[in-house]
Amino acid sequence: MKVVKNYLYNAGYQIFLLIVPLITTPYIARVIGPSGVGINAYTNSIIQYFVLFGSIGINMYGNREIAFFRDNPKKMSQIFWEIELLRILAIVLAETAFFIFLNWTKQYHVYLLMQSLLITAAAFDISWFFMGLEDFRTTVLRNTIVKVASVILIFTFVKTAQDLAVYILIISGSQLLGNLSLWPFLRRHLVKVSWHGFDLLQHLRPALVLFIPQIATQIYLVLNKTMLGKITGVTAAGFFDNSDKIIKMVLAVVTATGTVMLPRVAHTFAQGDKAQVNRYLYSSFDFVTAASVPMFLGLAAIAPKFAVWFFGAKFAATNTLIMLEAPAILMIAWSNVLGMQYLMPTNRNRDFTVSVTIGAIVNLILNVPLIMFWGAAGASVSTVFSEASVTGYQLFVVRHDIKMRQLFADLWKYILAGLVMFVVVLWLNINHPFNIMWLLLEVGSGVIIYVALVFVLRAKIIKQAKQLLFS
């Protein structure tokens, strides 16, 4: 039951983190326009590289190490401080590299400076510690307050296109405050340790091993926006960024299982219970399949009229981008289970690294021609293929460890139910004027149709849900 509660906390928080910008995005899109949205997306994509190199794989590594040693408070406390100090040193180097870069580049200095608060914020991000403890409530409640405050500030101070820097400052500043707000809660879990026995460097190599896949992952998550800004222009980057936000909002419900299950599986694996690890894998994979199939098909069905209604007429191109990128939801859901819930917690770092590296290479190779010919649409197609390559490789490397037939046993049932739902929702979307009432009707109809068909087809997710709810 703790896993369910943690999932609900984390899923709710991840959705909230994405709903916050989605609440403000229609307003921001109309106030600062496609160019302003594009500048924000482009400069943020550049800053994310410095955040990435300053983080050196700490989030995944720290999460796993705390999960391994959480039954030993003294050892856990020492590991926390060693890892955190290592991260702070890495962030200092990343900040230095950023200011060298700032002197070299000639564009968007003010916006890059506002975005650079995200680099500083990364130094104080200790969410990995609480996730390793499976304490998601603390992270959720504290950061929710900060994010709500940021929404109020945006609507109060961002009034014209000239307020783009203010908007960026509010977003990056709230991230810093949210991270700092977690520090007082460390007193509940940490004990005093001797500083003389600290060995920061022992964590560097294993963190770097996990850092390599993060580099690859970041390439195909952020590189699209950077390349669109350089090849096609910041406006195209803005279109793609808004489409990507919608996809990530839907994904948050599914990928939250990875954050919750990584420490649980790592702890189980450390105890030598490999059979339970496999049971976790089958259950999680079935759950994310059951959830992601209707999400990607439902999103594609409402996409033809959604973006214009949500973002404004200037963002009409985003309709097509959402439809093109929607299949990535299923691919990412599967790779999240296989990678974050199986390969990572069972120390199969090499397989995980190769999988995301393949995705990055596929993305890089496809991006250049597809963006040159199709612009933002090309970036969306490239994203789907790169995510599919990651999932495909991960399935290949685990083929001897798990039963594929059991993994995909009910996939046809979810696909059938999802396609019937897609046809009905798409017909409603095309044949009726789009507004909030019709959106709710389309979503509600889709949910009812899908759930009813899953019941009729007797998919095993129904039995799993009953066990979780009544256990």
TrEMBL record:
The keyword GTP-binding does not apply. It is a multi-pass membrane protein. The keyword Membrane applies. Keywords: Membrane, Transmembrane, Transmembrane helix. Pfam families: Polysacc_synt. The chain crosses the membrane at residues 7-29, 41-62, 83-104, 110-133, 164-186, 207-226, 287-311, 317-340, 352-374, 380-399, 411-430, 436-457. Its main location: membrane. It is found in: Membrane. GO terms for cellular component: membrane. This is PST family polysaccharide transporter. It comes from Loigolactobacillus rennini DSM 20253. The lineage of its organism: Bacteria, Bacillati, Bacillota, Bacilli, Lactobacillales.
